[in-house]
C-alpha cells in the first residue's frame, strides 16, 4: 500500500512541476514578444541618437 501511495504522490508532484514549467514557458514567450515589439518600435532621442525603450 505504501509503494502505491508513493507512486501516486510522485505522479502528482511531477504533474505539478510539468504544469508550472509549461506556464513559465508561456510567460517567457510573452515577455520575449513584448521585448521584440519594444525593440522594433523604439523611438529616437532628441539628440538624433538611437534611443532605448527601457531604462537600465
Q: What do these coordinates show?
A:
The chain crosses the membrane at residues 30-49. This is Hydrophobic protein. It comes from Streptomyces tendae. Keywords: Membrane, Transmembrane, Transmembrane helix. The protein is an all-alpha fold and 56 residues long. The protein has a domain at 1-33. It is 70% helix and 0% strand. It is built from one helix and no strands. The chain has one helix at residues 2-40. The longest helix has 39 residues, at 2-40.
Question: Can you lay out the helices and strands and say which pair or pack?
Answer:
Layout (H helix, E strand, L loop, with lengths): L1 H39 L16
Protein name: Hydrophobic protein
Keywords: Membrane, Transmembrane, Transmembrane helix
Helix content: 55-70%
Please provide the ordered H/E string of secondary-structure elements: H
Low-confidence stretches: none
| Strand proportion | under 5%
SS-based structural class?
mainly alpha
What is the number of helical segments per DSSP (H or I, 4+ residues)? 1
| First-residue to last-residue Cα separation | 56 Å
Instruction: Give the total of beta strands.
Output: 0
| Whole-number mean pLDDT | 78
> Rg, please?
22 Å
Largest sheet: none
Tell me the overall shape. Answer: rod-shaped
Assembly category: single chain
Protein name: Hydrophobic protein
Keywords: Membrane, Transmembrane, Transmembrane helix
Transmembrane segments: 30-49
